[in-house]
């Protein structure tokens, strides 16, 4: 009886472990694709990764439709044509209370040469759509 119980528990555990990496892999692909599109200033293409209403976008935008994010990005890139973000560390994926959070560390080039370090926190809903995209100043430790 103990043998059968241990086999059942191993099956449940192995099944649960198998699902997590695939989910994280999907979010990881989305993050890298999103930053590629953002660096190419393709706001219309990046729009597909956002939820219909985004709770937080950058610092000041709250509860906005994704179309407004597209307009905001186009306006920003028009003012900063050499803007790009360079990822400097592996993307970290965590699941907290059923929410997938991707943390990205890197350099934000506004003019193409000078940069501050930033930490970007991206939260995904259960449909793998971004509902929160927030940037923070980050002091890199040497």
Please identify the structural class as seen in this structure. Answer: alpha+beta
Distance between the termini: 56 Å
Structure annotation, total helices: 3
CATH top level is Alpha Beta
Percent helix, as a range, is: 25-40%
Poorly predicted runs of 5 or more residues: 8-20
Output the CATH topology.
Answer: Nuclear Transport Factor 2, Chain: A
Largest sheet: 7 strands, mixed
**Which band does the percent of strand residues land in?**
25-35%
List the helices and strands in order. HHEEHEEEEE
Radius of gyration: 18 Å
Instruction: Give the strand tally.
Output: 7
Q: How many domains comprise the coordinates?
A: 1
Named at the architecture level, the CATH assignment is: Roll
Tell me, rounded to a whole number, the average pLDDT. Answer: 86
**Overall body shape:** globular
